[in-house]
Structure prediction request, 107 residues.
Amino acid sequence: MVRDKYKDLAPLVELHHERFDGKGYPHGLKEHEIPRLARMLCVIDSFDAMTTERPYQETKSFDEALLEIRRCSGTQFDPELAELFIAYIEAKMASSNSYVAADLEQQ
Prediction:
């Protein structure tokens, strides 16, 4: 049954609105009381929310979203996971930029 297949993920979805500083919801958990995967999901979901079109807010560029994640590191986001995520996205951006530059040089 599908529900059984994903039942272990349900708590992560519920807890990804918790904040590293304990000011989140639904339980007000803080720091390592929040499961690591929920802390990761919080960063990823926040980045997605900032960088995709939403009717209630202006869409941010990747650079703007990364600045916001860095600014909220230690309060909303686990600082270790925030920095790992930022480094990953920056590396991906640099890699894609080098492909574009190489394509332009070949033209």
User: Anything to note?
Assistant: The radius of gyration is 17 Å. The mean pLDDT is 89.
